[in-house]
Write a structure and sequence with these properties.
mainly alpha
Length: 199
């Protein structure tokens, strides 16, 4: 899951917006405030669950031009695409309202964010592009952003060249995975609440 899904999970678990994104940024967990640490831990659990889910294994094994070993990176982005397409199946809140709420929540903790995340929040303040992650252009821009800053980014070019097909390949895995993921995070939050309950 990429930014949009982690923000959705933050909203339904009532955990930190910034904290739920920190798993994608370099941080030292021992230095995080308790609320950010809770979100960071939830992000880590989500990433492990998604990586091991049978739908992710299916997506990574599909025949395509992009290298299979890098398919998980692209999967995170295209899963956001499908979450936005199926938004009304997973939320009663209008998409535009959620996007504004997410940015407002991120802005509140902007100063507690690492530099790269802080810059992303500044970008969202200038133009709320979260819903754009549900477009072909938005997916391509997100992949290109990774390609520019990652030393192995060139390996993602094959996915870009066949992007409509890659996005289509992710639809069925998304529909298998996301309901299971939401059930999983709610279960994890109940475990956390039970641990912190007095007595």
């Amino acid at each position: 899951m990429n930014y949009f899904a982690h923000l959705h999970i933050a909203s339904i678990t009532n955990t930190s917006w910034v904290g739920n994104l920190l798993g994608d940024f370099p941080v030292e967990p021992s230095n995080l405030d308790a609320d950010l640490l809770e979100g960071w831990r939830l992000h880590q659990k989500v990433d492990v669950m998604v990586d091991q889910h049978e739908a992710s294994v299916l997506f990574r094994s599909m025949v395509r031009k992009g290298r299979r070993r890098f398919a998980g990176i692209v999967q995170d982005i295209v899963m956001d695409y499908w979450l936005i397409q199926y938004w009304s199946d997973f939320s009663t809140q209008p998409l535009s309202v959620f996007c504004e709420q997410a940015v407002s929540g991120l802005v509140q903790d902007k100063e507690r964010s690492p530099e790269r995340l802080k810059n992303m929040i500044y970008s969202l303040e200038r133009e709320n592009w979260l819903s754009h992650l549900g477009t072909l252009e938005g997916v391509e821009k997100a992949i290109n952003s990774i390609m520019r800053r990652w030393q192995h980014g060139a390996h993602l070019q094959g996915f870009v060249e066949e992007l409509p097909s890659v996005i289509a390949q992710a639809q069925a895995p998304f529909l298998l995975l996301y309901p299971d993921l939401l059930a999983y995070v709610q279960q994890e939050m109940k475990k956390t609440e039970a641990t912190h309950s007095p007595g």
